[in-house]
């Protein structure tokens, strides 16, 4: 096939200075796309270059295009059921979606790397506004930055306690601190005086689970947190959703839930997990919400395996 003649002029122009132009296999795949698909690829390449990213091959560009389509579909807010709501955006930009003094508990897990330290202060500030009086914020925190996190979060909330989260087989070695780690700290803050149920301060995760997010927590471990810090009917917020584990546990156990994540893929994954959960529970005559399958979302639906596990497939 004469590759050059099959490529639209705008595509040739867009990829001219990129590694795509030098890879025969990708050029061939591009030439096989129809005009509209080629136009979308060209637009995505231009956007990536404007953002200073290198479109290193066609798969990278297609992945980016897929994310853009999801983001477009989600816009900022996806309200999918009376029981739960997912919001796509930076917590700082979308916090207004949550009413003052409406949330019973915030159960969350911000990213650990140093560049995300500001998110701990951000969530504490938001919590001071959205938590009901006496409400709790519980958050996983990295050992390394405990002093800074305690200091910045205590500006907005009352430090209450620290819990130990123990995972089976988790035994990282932190060489620069000479520590063999066996547990994760979970900080507990409150908005004013706490006077609800007694809480045991050691949590056990059933397993490590990175199936839905590279930094994901297990459903079993998250369930320990959700049941200790909320009651059925309560409104729980997780503003750093990741793979949506808190969402799944909360909805399954009858909590109302708001989830936020800046990453559209995290929102979409959570939406799919919740859709699978709703359909499964409906089948068990224990309905939460029936999610209608349409020709459009069938392609994106999770498939539920015999053991009840959810398998995601991308579009
Ligand atoms: C550690 S992961 C959460 C994992 C989750 N607990 C699970 O089990 O899958 C943290 C998430 O926070 C999101 N995030 C980081 N900064 C954010 C921000 N400013 N606003 C909203 N989400 C943010 C990331 O996209 C990531 O998905």
Walkthrough of the structure:
By secondary structure, the chain is α/β, with parallel strands linked by helices. 38% of the residues lie in helices and 19% in strands. The protein is built from twelve helices and 13 strands. The chain has helices at residues 3-6, 9-15, 24-32, 35-50, 58-74, 91-94, 118-130, 146-153, 219-229, 245-252, 264-283, 295-298, and strands at residues 77-79, 84-88, 103-108, 131-140, 158-166, 173-174, 179-180, 184-190, 202-204, 235-238, 256-261, 303-304, 310-311. The chain has a nine-stranded mixed sheet, sandwiched between helices. A hairpin with a 4-residue loop joins strand 1 (77-79) and strand 2 (84-88). Helix 2 (9-15) packs parallel to helix 4 (35-50) and helix 4 packs across helix 5. The two termini are 28 Å apart. The model is unreliable at 282-315 (pLDDT under 50). The structure holds S-adenosylmethionine. The site of S-adenosylmethionine (SAM) has 22 residues, from strand 11.
């Amino acid at each position: 096939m004469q590759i050059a003649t099959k490529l639209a002029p705008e595509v040739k122009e867009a990829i001219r200075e990129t590694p795509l132009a030098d890879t025969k296999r990708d050029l061939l795949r591009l030439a096989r796309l129809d005009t509209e698909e080629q136009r979308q690829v060209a637009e995505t390449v231009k956007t990536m270059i404007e953002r200073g990213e290198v479109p290193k091959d066609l798969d990278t560009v297609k992945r980016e295009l897929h994310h853009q389509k999801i983001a477009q579909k989600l816009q900022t807010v996806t309200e999918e059921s009376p029981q739960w709501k997912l919001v796509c955006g930076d917590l700082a930009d979308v916090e207004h979606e949550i009413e003052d003094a409406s949330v019973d508990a915030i159960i969350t897990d911000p990213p650990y790397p140093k560049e995300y330290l500001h998110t701990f202060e951000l969530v504490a500030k938001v919590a001071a506004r959205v938590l009901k009086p006496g409400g709790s914020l519980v958050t996983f925190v990295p050992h390394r930055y405990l002093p800074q996190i305690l200091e910045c979060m205590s500006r907005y909330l009352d430090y209450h306690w620290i819990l130990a989260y123990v995972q089976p087989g988790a035994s990282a070695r932190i060489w620069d601190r000479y520590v063999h780690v066996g547990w994760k700290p979970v900080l507990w803050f409150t908005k004013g005086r706490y006077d609800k149920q007694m809480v045991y301060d050691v949590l056990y995760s059933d397993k490590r689970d990175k199936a839905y997010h590279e930094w994901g927590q297990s459903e079993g471990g998250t369930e320990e947190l959700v049941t200790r810090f909320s009651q059925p009917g309560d409104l729980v917020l997780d503003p750093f959703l990741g793979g949506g584990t808190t969402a799944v546990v909360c909805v399954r156990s009858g909590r109302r839930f708001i989830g936020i994540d800046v990453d559209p893929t995290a929102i979409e994954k959570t939406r799919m997990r919740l859709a699978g959960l709703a359909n499964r529970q409906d089948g068990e005559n224990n309905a939460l919400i029936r999610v209608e399958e349409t020709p459009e979302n069938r392609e994106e639906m999770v498939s539920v395996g015999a053991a009840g596990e959810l398998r995601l497939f991308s579009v």
